Amino acid sequence: MKDNDEIICNCLQVTRGEIIEAIKTKGLTLVDEVGDETEAGTGCSSCHGDIEEILKEING
Ligand code: FES
Predict the structure, then answer these.
(1) Domain range for residue 55?
(2) Whole-angstrom distance, CA of residue 1 vs CA of residue 13
(3) Has residue 2 been placed in a domain?
């Protein structure tokens, strides 16, 4: 199990757990939607690949 306290987006200091929570509760499917809900990925964009992976993990 991966660490939910890990910071996925360093720019906006958003954790894996926050991203997972937003995906599950709001039914998010896109990196842009995760950005709208959590601000993750709205800075330098270097975390977009990691956000994609989390989306795949949750949504299959
Ligand atoms: S690390 Fe997420 S936008 Fe820069």
Answers:
(1) 7-59
(2) 21
(3) no
